[in-house]
């Protein structure tokens, strides 16, 4: 840690990373009168590109409520596909689970490019948010009074608080000296978008196999009226390249077979991408004048589709803590205040990481005996109203102590 540059342009908060978590945090913080600057190496053209690349996210009901509170939901609603039901099965065997949230709904599916673009457009239009894009960081420094970021072109920016929202390879986390507990699942997630011969009826399907689950997540119909879905297929690391390199026809045939044909023929319509699956958990979410949100603090298995929702819950909690502190005249980088945010979020993040890890390992056990145990467990869950309600509340993101940004306004 070095002395800061007193000539640096100062703001209350410096957010490193213009992904969904970073931009949502910026929009939330300016509502409390805090000055915010966001720095990222990505270009504005990339952030604003609305092109659909097959990647989409499941936004829990409370995450969608956040977008409503930030004034973004109305503009995104036309492209958001409601998730009314979740269906879980052990392969194609009988005895699966159906979770129907009724009129409440579970949340929505939304293409990543549209979410990213809407957040960027809103942040760009806000005079209280300074976006510094296409920026290469040369020096990062923190002292007792401020954090300072110096760019390769010589510009310097300081703030009372530095927020790491860069993702799993977070330089801000490294600057803080926060260690990371992590391990590889030796699996890769393959993502693409497909058309379905039959309607998904706004249902998210999760089909578990020993090699990994196949998630079929509902999207809005395409321009020709064909049902669409986002696919997240977990495969062993050694098989991923072979699956990705298959022709569209062969890959679609494999998906149709894996689904048992209940959705008819499945046809890929976007290029496939894949990424290594890991579990990462930061040992802390704060340090003097530093806070972490989203993937900079935690990465979980995509088995439950909750990674982005956890990050947005971080955003809502940090925004509330800093907003309340601002009203009391507190320094945004006050460590006692930041530890309140950490205490609020660490348990929820750790519990979700543990739950997804256990699920992945449990359903990865081959053989008839583990399969029987799993199906018996699903029958118990299916017949126990309290457990079903808990799972639905977790899927909707409505359990626990919720920040105000995740709740409907009075």
Automatic annotation (TrEMBL):
Origin organism lineage: Bacteria, Pseudomonadati, Pseudomonadota, Alphaproteobacteria, Sphingomonadales
Organism field: Blastomonas fulva
Pathway: Cofactor biosynthesis; ubiquinone biosynthesis
Matching SUPFAM superfamilies: FAD/NAD(P)-binding domain (SSF51905)
PROSITE patterns for the chain: UBIH
Keywords: FAD, Flavoprotein, Monooxygenase, Oxidoreductase
Named cofactor requirement(s): FAD
The protein, known as: FAD-binding domain-containing protein
Family: Belongs to the UbiH/COQ6 family.
Ranges where the FAD-binding domain occurs: 12-324
